[in-house]
């Protein structure tokens, strides 16, 4: 049983209580009800939160995720440790035939960055650290094989869920090419937990399920998915996060004296940097998605555009253009960073990844600015994140215009980002 340190009071104490309430022993759930299983990038952020309460518990969070790695190296986006009828699509709908049951796609690879942070603070070392590092390397190599667009080096996603930014407007056009007319009847569960105005539409869900059925039809053969999925879209979010994760992994491998691993990572990193470059949309002056099947590009700035700094690849004119977008958006929104450009007609203040601000993405964007030495922009994001929680509590996401808390309550990754980053004391 984790004891909450006496020093944690107010919102910090609440954050710790949320992490404890969402703790299922070896893993955490993002929130009770809406998301009753282990999610991939949520867990990496959760580990950072637990690290302020109990280092051992933080490491176990990452180890339980690592335990679900597929033989091909993929770490899946959901691990269904225990049955729960409250979520759809559950293990039966995915049909991946794994033990423990999992989904059949992946999610943004924050894992190695979390391992590095725990290692830097002395919370994991020796054989345990080596195993986590090897797991991360196999997963990163999997991205190179099963998700890298050969022509550009960009990392593509075969499902919007794989990006973590499920109903981002960038997916609208590529998704319209996915035929959902034959999708089997199904019952959504999310709308029993959260108002429909904050969630993806039925049309989007039909296409999400059509892609799940497609994955099943190829037996979740990940290379076939890359070659044949009707949806394969280069994503600046996943690409940038992987670039940063590779850098963290290289440092860890160096620390372990594994020169061969460092060499392999450096080889992959060069391709990835070229891939991120290929995701630059000259028309809007920002990183955006690239529809690898259809050829189109994402039509506006998204929060992930700013991850060019996090990846350490936005330089010169690109950096200037991103900074100008940042300042424009900062003038429009009381609370940064909206997931989608507030000047776009597709902006929707409440609907999930089509407008709301998310603390985890804020954390990554701010780290990028800090990395570039841009303390002012990093501070604006952190101050806004702190205000969102101070005023609204620990929700899944927030309106960037009013700060209204939205989506699921008592949310693990928001509590974790408070403890690890947003609160005054860290
Ligand atoms: C959301 O995604 C799940 C599907 O994976 C859903 O809506 O059912 C996204 O915000 C995703 O990024 C996140 O990992 C997950 C759990 O918090 O919820």
Based on the model shown, name its key terms.
mainly alpha, binds (2R)-3-hydroxy-2-(alpha-D-mannopyranosyloxy)propanoic acid, about 425 residues, 17 helices, 9 strands, 3-stranded antiparallel β-sheet, about 5% strand
Write the layout of secondary structure elements.
Layout: H1 10-21, E1 38-39, H2 40-50, H3 55-66, E2 78-79, H4 91-94, H5 111-120, H6 126-146, E3 156-157, H7 160-163, H8 172-176, H9 202-217, H10 222-228, E4 233-234, H11 236-255, H12 259-278, E5 280-281, E6 286-287, E7 290-291, H13 307-310, H14 316-332, H15 359-371, H16 375-392, E8 397-398, E9 405-406, H17 412-422
Antiparallel strand pairs: 1-2, 3-4, 4-7, 5-6, 8-9
Bound molecules: (2R)-3-hydroxy-2-(alpha-D-mannopyranosyloxy)propanoic acid.
The site of (2R)-3-hydroxy-2-(alpha-D-mannopyranosyloxy)propanoic acid (2M8) has 10 residues, from helix 2.
Model description:
This protein is mainly α and 426 residues long. The protein is built from 17 helices and 9 strands. The strands form 4 sheets. Strands 3-4-7 form a 3-stranded antiparallel β-sheet. Helix 16 (375-392) crosses helix 17 (412-422). The two termini are 24 Å apart. The model has no long low-confidence stretch (mean pLDDT 97). The chain binds (2R)-3-hydroxy-2-(alpha-D-mannopyranosyloxy)propanoic acid. (2R)-3-hydroxy-2-(alpha-D-mannopyranosyloxy)propanoic acid binds at residues 30, 35, 39, 41-42, 77, 161, 164, 166, 190.
């Amino acid at each position: 049983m984790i004891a909450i340190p006496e020093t944690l009071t107010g919102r910090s104490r609440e954050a710790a209580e949320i992490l404890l309430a969402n703790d299922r022993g070896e893993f955490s759930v993002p929130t009770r009800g809406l998301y009753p299983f282990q999610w991939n990038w949520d867990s990496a952020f959760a580990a950072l939160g637990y690290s302020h309460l109990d280092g051992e518990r933080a490491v176990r969070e990452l180890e339980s995720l690592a335990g679900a790695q597929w033989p091909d190296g993929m770490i899946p986006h959901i691990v269904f440790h225990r049955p729960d009828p409250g979520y759809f699509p559950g293990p039966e709908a995915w049909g991946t035939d794994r033990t423990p049951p999992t989904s059949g796609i992946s999610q943004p690879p924050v894992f190695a960055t979390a391992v590095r942070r725990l290692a830097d603070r002395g919370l994991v070392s020796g054989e345990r650290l080596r195993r986590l590092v090897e797991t991360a390397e196999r997963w990163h190599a999997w991205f190179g094989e099963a998700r890298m667009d050969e022509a550009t080096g960009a990392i593509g996603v075969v499902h919007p869920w794989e990006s973590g930014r499920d109903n981002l407007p960038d997916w609208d056009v590529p998704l319209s090419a996915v035929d959902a007319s034959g999708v089997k009847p199904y019952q959504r569960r999310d709308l029993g937990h959260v108002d429909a105005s904050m969630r993806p539409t039925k049309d989007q869900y039909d296409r999400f399920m059509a892609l799940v059925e497609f994955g099943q039809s190829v037996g979740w053969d990940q290379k076939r998915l890359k070659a044949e999925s009707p949806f394969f879209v280069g994503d600046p979010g996943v690409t940038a996060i992987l670039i940063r994760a590779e850098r963290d992994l290289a440092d860890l491998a160096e620390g372990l004296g594994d020169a061969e691993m460092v060499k392999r990572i450096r080889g992959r990193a060069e391709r990835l940097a070229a891939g991120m470059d290929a995701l630059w949309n000259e028309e809007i002056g920002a990183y955006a998605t690239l529809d690898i099947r259809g050829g189109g590009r994402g039509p506006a700035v998204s929060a992930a555009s700013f991850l060019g700094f996090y990846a350490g690849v936005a330089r010169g004119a690109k950096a200037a253009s991103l900074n100008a977008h940042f300042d424009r958006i900062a003038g429009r929104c009381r609370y940064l960073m909206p997931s989608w450009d507030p000047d776009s007609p597709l902006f929707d203040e409440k609907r999930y990844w089509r407008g709301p601000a998310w603390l985890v993405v804020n954390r990554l964007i701010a780290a990028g600015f800090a990395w570039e030495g841009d303390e002012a922009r990093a501070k604006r994001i952190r101050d806004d994140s702190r205000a969102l929680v101070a005023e609204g509590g620990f929700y899944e996401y927030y309106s960037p215009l009013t700060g209204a808390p939205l989506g699921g309550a008592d949310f693990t990754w928001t509590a974790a980002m408070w403890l690890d980053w947003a609160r005054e004391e860290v």
